[in-house]
Amino acid sequence: QVQLVESGGGLVQAGGSLRLSCAASVTIFSISAMGWYRQAPGKERELVAVVSSNGRKTYADSVKGRFSISRDNAKNTVYLQMNSLKPEDTAVYYCNLNKATLGIDYWGQGTQVTVSS
75-84, pLDDT tens digit by residue? Predict the structure, then answer.
């Protein structure tokens, strides 16, 4: 059974920082793209950041310069460092593992991030 377990969410004041972690119980972690998505109330889920299996990183324009995604293949874990948080960053953040060539697309259960003004 594949599991993606997120942690690190919480309540923080605007301007603060949080670090999200996602641990994956899969053997294909190192060859998969890992991403963070978020969904705010009443809005569609959107991409925040993704890191490919070769380390290429892509960010949403709204988080460029504030968020940083990284991965540790030895620990099967992906991280999202979030700095200079804004109230509009408030959402449930989801971890995603994708290996399209194998038809694999897994999601974590989500972790709540709330930024107060």
Answer: 999 999 999 9
